[in-house]
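[Discussion] Sanity-checking designs against the backbone

I'm trying to build intuition for which residues belong where. Below is a C-alpha cell string of 70 positions. I'd appreciate it if someone posts a full sequence so I can compare it with mine line by line.
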C-alpha cells in the first residue's frame, strides 16, 4: 500500500471514529436533558466517575437514576 493510500484509509477511519464519538456524546447529553439534567454537568460527572465505578453500580450513572456527586 502506498503512503498516500495509507493516509486516505487512516483519514476515513478517523472521520468515522469522530462521528461515532459525537453520536455517543450527543445521545448521552440528550438523555440527560430529557431527564432534567444539565447535559454538560451530567457528561462531566459520568465520565469522571465511570473509571472508578464498581461494575454492579454502573446503573447508577444512567440518566434516569443519576444523582450529582456531592
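Best answer:
Here's mine. Compare freely.
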Amino acid at each position: 500500500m502506498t503512503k498516500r493510500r495509507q493516509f486516505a484509509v487512516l483519514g476515513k477511519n478517523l472521520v468515522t471514529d469522530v462521528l461515532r464519538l459525537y453520536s455517543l456524546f450527543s445521545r448521552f447529553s440528550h438523555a440527560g436533558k430529557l431527564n432534567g439534567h444539565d447535559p454538560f454537568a451530567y457528561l462531566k460527572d459520568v465520565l469522571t466517575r465511570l473509571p472508578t465505578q464498581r461494575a454492579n453500580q454502573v446503573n447508577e450513572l444512567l440518566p434516569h437514576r443519576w444523582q450529582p456527586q456531592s
